[in-house]
Recover the amino acids of this structure.
């Protein structure tokens, strides 16, 4: 698929896929969106001492980069598992200029399917596969935080279904947190039917009005 670099309103870049008419991040601010939804509302809200984060959609690696930076800053170890069916190359990522931190390139150059220690506080395992298949195979009660960052339901409907949320619920520990940018009623109802307590939260500055956070109590 062809991907075009576009600058977003906070100055950070994202990729646009003409075939899907879809962006990898909010045009209102790629960095702002990722920081707010996944780091501030997700990782920071987790009570886990060493949270295991599952990301649905590695994409450009921006969520992973911000998680690495937060882990190193707070000296809080994070185990990070990221699922991606269509990996991008470093040649596609580098022009986005997300970071001059050499660890960002290291995240992209590490082998898939292998756990790699990126920093003293951040270990990464990238999995190249269909998320529906991988999530069904997760160990019960092994995940603390889920970043659900698939393309929008109307663009990637196979990723937004009752079975995947039920499987995620089973894979998460008590007090586990799932965050997503999508606040559609149908998604909220599927999360509730799977057993989550779901709350609407304010969206990122200048971006979506609301996001969803689901908790396993």
């Amino acid at each position: 698929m062809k991907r075009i670099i576009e600058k977003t309103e906070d100055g950070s870049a994202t990729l646009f896929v003409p075939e899907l008419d879809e962006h990898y991040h909010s045009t209102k601010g790629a960095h702002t969106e990722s920081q707010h939804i996944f780091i501030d509302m997700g990782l920071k809200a987790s009570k886990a001492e060493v949270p295991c984060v599952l990301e649905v959609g590695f994409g450009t690696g921006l969520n992973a980069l911000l998680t690495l930076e937060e882990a190193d800053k707070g000296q809080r170890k994070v185990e990070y598992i990221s699922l991606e069916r269509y990996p991008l190359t470093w040649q596609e990522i580098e022009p986005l200029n997300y970071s001059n931190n050499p660890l960002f390139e290291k995240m992209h150059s590490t082998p898939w399917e292998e756990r790699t220690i990126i920093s003293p506080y951040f270990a990464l395992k990238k999995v190249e596969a269909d998320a529906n298949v991988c999530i069904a195979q997760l160990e019960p009660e092994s995940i603390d935080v889920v970043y659900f960052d698939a393309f929008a339901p109307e663009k990637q409907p196979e990723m937004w279904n009752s079975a995947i949320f039920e499987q995620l619920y089973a894979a998460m520990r008590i007090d586990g947190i799932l965050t997503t940018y999508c606040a559609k009623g149908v998604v909220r109802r599927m999360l509730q039917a799977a057993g989550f307590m779901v709350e609407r939260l304010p969206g990122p500055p200048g971006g979506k009005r609301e996001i969803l956070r689901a908790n396993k109590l």
